[in-house]
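Support request from a user on the community tier.

User writes: "When I paste my structure tokens into the form, the page sometimes reloads and wipes my input. The last time it worked, I copied everything first. Here is what I submitted, just in case something in the input itself triggers the reload:"
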């Protein structure tokens, strides 16, 4: 009987752990500073997810690990993409320290007219990769970081990392 109770408690504890893993993550600031307020994180997600919903795509979920990766890169204060990347990456810079981070996402969306999803091509002379990363069908998670004290021309450097990364060939959505 004692073994049955112990095994039952173990199974119950394991099922609780599995249930806890299935709980949808909250959209909340991550432990450690990523430079973004809760309202800014919500704004970034809202712009992404409104755009994705318009295309019938699932919502992106905030990921603290991606946010930490993005913050590490943003802290450098340099406007350059990583040479190699495990994740998708969008960057936004501004000379105004008071810029709202969601505005950076809106700027990426201005690339939409140059993208032809039917042919999976970007119009000659245009850049579409920021837009296509936002709407990449296989991407499920996002995390961003910001540096509001960069030196030089750009005072703000915002980095968003995406997993799985997009722009790997073919249609975005």
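"...and here is what came back when it finally went through:"
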């Amino acid at each position: 009987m004692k073994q049955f109770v112990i095994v039952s408690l173990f199974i119950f504890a394991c099922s609780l752990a599995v249930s806890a893993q299935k709980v949808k993550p909250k959209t909340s600031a991550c432990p450690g500073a990523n430079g973004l307020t809760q309202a800014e994180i919500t704004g970034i997600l809202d712009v992404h997810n409104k755009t994705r919903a318009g295309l019938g795509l699932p919502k992106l979920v905030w990921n603290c690990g991606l946010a930490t990766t993005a913050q590490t890169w943003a802290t450098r204060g340099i406007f350059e993409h990583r040479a190699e990347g495990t994740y998708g990456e969008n960057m936004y810079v501004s000379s105004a320290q008071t810029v709202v981070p969601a505005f950076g996402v809106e700027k990426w969306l201005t690339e939409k007219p140059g993208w032809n999803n039917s042919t999976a091509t970007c119009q000659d002379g245009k850049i579409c990769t920021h837009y296509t990363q936002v709407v990449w069908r296989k991407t499920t998670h996002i995390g961003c970081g910001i540096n509001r004290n960069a030196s030089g021309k750009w005072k703000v450097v915002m980095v968003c990392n995406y997993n799985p990364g997009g722009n790997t060939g073919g249609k975005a959505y």
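Agent notes: The reload is a front-end session timeout and is unrelated to the input. Residues 2-22 form the longest helix (21 residues). Strands lie at 61-62, 88-94, 115-116, 121-122, 141-147, 156-163. Escalated to web team.
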